[in-house]
Amino acid sequence: MNTVSLLRPAATNPATRPELTDALRATVDAKAAAALTLLRDAVAEFGHDGELAFANSFGAEDMVLTDLILTHRLPIEIFSLDTGRLPAETYTLIGEVEQRYDTKLKVYFPDASAVENFVRSHGINAFYDSVELRKACCGVRKMEPLRRALAGKKAWITGLRAAQSVTRTGVALREFDQANGLEKLNPLADWSEAEVWAYIRRHDVPYNALHDQFYPSIGCAPCTRAIALGEDVRAGRWWWEDPASKECGLHVRKG
């Protein structure tokens, strides 16, 4: 198993502090306005009483959407999945978000007995042994809680971007999620990484401290590492696997 990259992270991370040129500011303002319109239209279409939910994993993209939803007081339920193996920095950010926006987030946990059975059968770090076991672990810790979180919903919102990885190049602003049987909205589908960070800097949005340590994509602690300049933004997720398999199942499109 390849556990480390031969590349070395640079001393500072320029990705989280893009140069805020006039052109970048204008582009971000326009895209933020478009994303806000999409969110408001979604509320009008799917309802004000919990029928529309935002799946927040507390990555940089999700913090942009969190700020848009909570700053504009949109009636969109925000939920998160706590796998039980998140980095400490993610838990710190959850507390910062609740304090900053004066809100309480809905957090879903995996079924304890299912986690116990998986670990007893396969081992505490079985996800390193094969793609099948890694996906089985994601199934227990992410997929089952997601099904509970989406029960009764008409649509859900994600922070997916088409530029994130080879598995996400076809991401659209809106698509039907066949796996979960409901509409799926991706307001940042056409955003670049620089645009995400420009929004965060301009609006002083809280974010995961690991981003400054070269973690552009953050999941469970044992399945996430820092990347070096020049690596794909998803290179630090399940780095021992082929890039084509790097999804946990939450955003795999069928058909």
**Overall pLDDT score:** 90
Mind telling me the CATH class?
Alpha Beta
Number of domains: 1
| Structure class | alpha/beta
**What's the count of strands?**
6
What gap, in angstroms, lies between the N and C termini? 31 Å
CATH topology: Rossmann fold
The fraction of residues in strands falls at: 5-15%
Q: Tell me what the CATH architecture is.
A: 3-Layer(aba) Sandwich
Strand order of the largest sheet: 3-2-1-4-6-5
The Cα radius of gyration reads 18 Å
> Total helix count?
6
Q: Would you identify the regions where 5 or more consecutive residues have pLDDT less than 50?
A: 1-6
Global outline? globular
Please identify which CATH superfamily we are dealing with. Answer: HUPs
Percent helix among the residues? 25-40%
Describe the sheet with the most strands.
6 strands, mixed
Could you give the order of the helices and strands? HEHEHEHHEEEH
Describe the structure.
This protein has 255 residues and is of the alpha/beta class. The protein has a single domain, classed as HUPs (Rossmann fold, 3-Layer(aba) Sandwich). It contains 6 helices and 6 strands, in the order H-E-H-E-H-E-H-H-E-E-E-H. It is globular. The model is unreliable at 1-6 (pLDDT under 50).
